Amino acid sequence: LITEQADIPLSRGAEMKGKCGTNESELEISWLEQAYTLKLFFLGGKKRPGKKRLSRIQFTYDTAERTYFKDAVSPGKHTASSHRLSALVTPAGKSYECQAQQTISLISSDHQKSVQLLLSEVRVQPFDITADFVFSEEHKCPVDQREQLEETLPLILGLILGLVIVITLCVYHIHHKLTANQVQIPRDRSQYKHMG
């Protein structure tokens, strides 16, 4: 059994191009002299109006390229792609933002290889662009929303608990002031003989 593994990061000098349409958009990113090309295909919401999503991914990689593949078993160009993908779902008019890492499994043309795409710190808007280089209001991914809730929930609960304590102390103080000036009538009848 021979296994080979390569972590291929997206380099800073990557070339980008794309096509923007009303219901379909495409983003193509290539780097290291097109040894690696990542294509993202987006669909508008025909079946579910108002929802935009990443519908397909295609990743072309060259195992003959020596930066990430040192001793490839079968060097050459391969393509990995997704089928029936529904990711990065975003309401119309908003950009998609996700700081958390997401993993998408791709099926390779070389069936002996497994390809996983790791996305993190993503911000994309394939539709409803109002101005160049300006994102619309962001729609956070569920993982980021959950993390944000986990960060703010203890603060909210602490504020509520503090407010309950303050209200309880205020009610006790007011009750104590109102009852302090009143004559206390003994409840035990044996104490009546000392009155008077």
Structure commentary:
With 196 residues, the chain is α+β, with helices and mostly antiparallel strands. It folds into 2 domains: 126 residues, Beta Barrel (Porin); 40 residues. It is built from 1 helix and 11 strands; from the N terminus they run E-E-E-E-E-E-E-E-E-E-E-H. Strands 1, 2, 3, 4, 5, 6, 8 and 9 form an 8-stranded antiparallel β-sheet that branches. A 3-stranded mixed β-sheet has the order 10-7-11. The mean pLDDT is 82. This is Lysosome-associated membrane glycoprotein 5. InterPro entries: Lamp2-like_luminal, Lysosome-assoc_membr_glycop. Pfam families: Lamp2-like_luminal.
- The CATH architecture of the largest domain is Beta Barrel
Q: What does the overall shape look like?
A: elongated
- One letter per element, helices H and strands E, the order comes to EEEEEEEEEEEH
Q: Count up the domains.
A: 2
Mean pLDDT: 82
Subcellular location: Cell projection, Dendrite; Cell projection, Growth cone membrane; Cytoplasmic vesicle, Secretory vesicle, Synaptic vesicle membrane; Early endosome membrane
Protein name: Lysosome-associated membrane glycoprotein 5
Transmembrane segments: 153-174
Domain Lysosome-associated membrane glycoprotein 2-like luminal: 15-129
Features:
20% helix, 2 domains, Lamp2-like_luminal, transmembrane, Porin, elongated, 196 residues
